[in-house]
Write a structure and sequence with these properties.
globular; nine-stranded mixed sheet; single chain; mainly beta
Length: about 800
């Protein structure tokens, strides 16, 4: 008898394991009648559709079935235009459903329902569509490494809160997806439900968190057959008006242009912008920048952020190069001065083509052309005015081939090319990448080889190569890698790279819990070792080992602790600003703690103190990040962020002349204040406030001369004033109304200015007075964008 019981239990366990390991399937039902997207699901056809149910917890208690009082039922219909999704999300306490109204692509404190679609079922990339219980849409392109929420599709959704829970109805046009030409479609599919108040996520097809890859663990959508998809041609004309006022005068600017999206076929799309307008994009954060490299800026222009995942492969593409600053240094006579030097270069037009074939070959092509730009120079003796080209007519080109195979592996080729007219510098760089995973996503082998070639006054080339291996599943994981970068590796004409001429070795090991314990919902500890050595001198430029601990408590507060030790003598090969020179860096230890409170509460706070202690007397760095936020209700919230750094006895480069390279010992202090506010009139209309005040100074108190040994000796004769005081102010108040799918009216008031000085002022009130007495610029702009579907226009005529 006991033997039979044991055999029965063993059979049940095996069946359970097989059930969890199998991919669920759902049949989509073909329709001919119209479906109204209103969240009511009252069309008769819904009753005969197959049901996706029996959701399984993704986190925190991975593998636990959903409670019956939170059961979730999803159905899928389709026609020649789109797929239609209905979801009934039961909730025994519907009054507790979280439903904060946010901007598009902002999750907020809300319950969510989402659909993950992989049209090629290749385990590589999802098209993800989310809707909150407040009816706000979010969407992204997702790979295992990254979710790109800058990608926006045009789709419909409606939400209704009921006595039983909440209901979602969605229409996702085929134009928002990519899939093969096969008569019978076989898509990867998963649904996810987030219950915010419990901080729980559930998926239809179980995602095992012991496995590193999520996308290959999707279920299957079957039944879509012989669809005749419509022409994918979308026109987005826009018109903008700007009124700008500053101390130098005022004026009105009118702009108009057109964005075009054309579906070459069901897999490939062409995007083009004609006469671009980026006047309402988010402002750049101006800072006091004393580093040896350029400041890396965030990309905020939609054309260069939406759907550019292919172009980011290999790290050869930094889109701010296109339409950024000039690459030319002017040669002026002693009696000449520059009276107008454009800070940016105008973008004339840009196109991109991207998609993936049925056999998994991804192809990306991007081309952009920027305008010939001149600076104005004045001869102070003769009064003569001349113009000189600082950036010629320039063509930027990206080309990517990315072959996916075995559901979770890929090999890629990337080429970046910059061609400038006349005798200006040209550049070309290429990369060959591989990312190989075992079938069960247990181990990963990755690497690359990159080559750069520069055609300038003196031609040169260089290369970079890397290989790594990692265990990517289970509670215990590890990885190690090696890298070599040659002396003349340079991708900075279309990419961005700060470091070259070094080799690197890195290793890490981690442990994580996959189900909650008596103390934590989640817990992870990672330890790593990182060494970098200069190729020419053999000197160490990085030598560190550290520990990272991340956890979420049972009350859903997030905790993080980081400590990194650098106990070796290292050298900085970039701060001296002269090739072949380097400066000694002392041993140090860095520590940071992060606390993030449960964002279900009306009042939340993020607190992160940090400190870096070196073994040079009083040479330390103290940092503090604090961000309180209060959510008054589902429509209105206010937040404040303070970022503060104090570098005591910091040492850095200040000048170079024929007699040597000069460093200063200095105090550097930085405080940035960010204020944000949101008021949502409804889920398509919001008012947003963003204000930023930044103040930083550098006060030198002792000077040094850099020796060939890398050490500094005191210099009592250097007497130039290299102190810096910097104030920056930005204020944006905007109103946005998505009055139709893909169509928006936006009104923006912008006020900004900055003030630079060589006299340090430590009084905050005086700094504020200085910035507001400076040349502040005021801009009021109105922009209208209207989405036109060619098929709708065709049908009307």
């Amino acid at each position: 008898m006991a033997k039979r019981i044991y055999l029965s239990l063993l059979f049940l366990i095996i069946c359970s394991i097989n059930t969890f390991g199998q991919k669920k399937t759902l049949q989509a039902k073909s329709i001919t009648e119209n479906i109204t997207i209103d969240g009511k699901i009252n069309e008769q056809i819904w009753e005969s559709a197959s049901i996706a149910s029996d959701f399984i917890m993704f986190e925190p208690d991975n593998g636990k079935p959903i409670n019956n009082d939170k059961k979730t039922e999803v159905k899928v219909l389709y026609d020649n235009d789109a797929i239609y999704i209905s979801a009934m999300l039961y909730d025994n306490e519907p009054g507790k459903i979280q439903k904060e109204i946010t901007n598009r692509d902002v999750f907020g404190v809300s319950d969510h329902f989402s659909v993950y679609i992989n049209g090629f079922n290749d385990g590589q990339q999802d098209f993800r569509f989310f809707v909150s219980a407040a009816g706000v849409q979010m969407d992204c392109l997702a790979t295992e490494d990254y979710e790109d929420f800058t990608w926006d599709a045009i789709w419909d959704s409606e939400v209704v809160i009921t006595e039983l829970g909440w209901v979602v109805e969605m229409k996702i046009p085929y134009a928002a997806l990519r899939f093969s030409k096969a008569d019978k479609q076989n898509w990867g599919l998963n649904f996810m439900r987030e219950i915010k108040r419990d901080v729980q996520k559930y998926t239809w097809n179980r995602i095992d968190t012991k496995i590193g890859a999520v996308i290959p663990q999707a279920g299957i959508l079957q039944g879509i057959e012989k669809i005749q998809t419509p022409t994918r041609l979308f026109l987005i004309p826009y018109s903008s008006a700007y009124y700008q006022q500053s101390d130098i005068g005022s004026g009105i600017t009118l702009k108009a242009g057109l964005d075009i999206k054309y579906g070459i076929n069901d897999s490939f799309t062409l995007d083009a912008i004609l006469v671009p307008d980026f006047g309402q994009t988010k402002f750049d954060n101006a800072i006091l920048y004393l580093e040896p490299f350029e400041q890396q800026l965030e990309e905020n222009r939609p054309f260069f952020t939406e759907g550019t995942d292919l172009f980011s492969k290999g790290g050869l593409f930094y889109s701010r190069r296109i339409g950024g600053g000039s690459t030319t240094e002017l040669l002026l006579a002693n009696e000449e001065e520059t009276i107008n030097y454009p800070s940016t270069v105008d973008l004339l037009n840009a196109i991109k083509i991207s998609g993936r074939t049925e056999k998994g070959l991804g192809i990306g092509f991007l081309n952009a052309v920027t305008e010939k730009t001149k600076a104005t120079i004045k001869n102070n003796e003769t009064g003569e005015i001349r113009k000189e080209v600082i950036e010629p007519l320039t063509n930027y080109n990206m080309f990517v081939l990315d072959q996916r195979f075995n559901q979770n592996s890929s090999v890629s080729f990337v080429n970046a090319n910059t061609t400038r007219n006349d005798d200006f510098r040209d550049a070309n760089s290429s990369a060959l990448l591989f990312d190989l995973n075992t079938k069960q996503n247990t181990y990963n082998l990755y690497g690359d080889f990159k080559y750069s070639a520069i055609n300038a006054i003196e031609d040169y080339d260089g290369f970079k190569t890397e290989i790594g291996f990692a265990k990517t599943s289970g509670k215990y994981r590890y990885g190690f890698s090696g890298k070599y970068v040659s002396e003349n590796y340079d991708i900075n004409d279309l990419g961005i790279n700060f470091y070259s001429n070094y080799h690197n070795a890195y290793a890490n090991g981690s442990y994580r819990i996959v189900n909650p314990t008596k103390l934590f919902n989640t817990f992870r500890i990672n330890q790593y070792i990182n060494f970098e050595m200069d190729n020419t001198s053999g000197k160490l430029q990085t030598g560190a080992f550290g520990t990272e601990i991340k956890a979420r408590t049972l009350s859903n507060d997030a905790l993080e602790f980081v400590v990194e030790f650098s106990p070796f003598k290292t050298y900085d090969f970039y701060e001296p600003r002269e090739y072949g020179k380097y400066v000694f860096l002392p041993q140090k230890v860095f520590t940071a703690v992060n606390f993030t409170s449960n964002d279900n509460n009306p009042f939340t706070i993020v607190l992160q103190p940090s400190v870096t202690i070196s073994n040079e007397k009083d040479r330390n760095v103290y940092g503090l990040y604090i961000s309180p936020k209060y959510r008054f209700n589902d429509r209105f919230s206010l937040a404040y962020v303070l970022e503060y750094f104090n570098k005591t006895n910091d040492r850095g480069w200040v000048d170079t002349d024929k007699t040597g390279i000069f460093f200063a010992e200095r105090i550097r202090e930085t405080a940035q204040h960010d204020f944000t506010g949101k008021y949502a009139l409804n889920n398509k209309m919001t008012i947003n406030l963003t204000a930023r005040y930044y103040w930083s100074y550098s006060k030198n108190h002792e000077f040094f001369t850099l020796q060939d040994s890398g050490y500094l000796t005191p210099n009592s004769t250097y007497a130039q004033n290299k102190d810096r005081n910097f104030n920056s102010w930005n204020f944006d108040l905007s109103y946005s109304w998505w009055f139709a799918p893909g169509s928006e009216i936006s009104i923006l008031y912008r006020n900004y200015g900055l003030e630079r000085a060589s006299i340090v002022e430590k009084d905050l009130s005086k700094n504020l007075k200085n910035i507001f007495n400076s040349d502040l610029t005021n801009v009021l702009s109105v922009s209208i964008r209207y989405f036109i579907d060619y098929n709708s226009v065709k049908n009307k005529f």
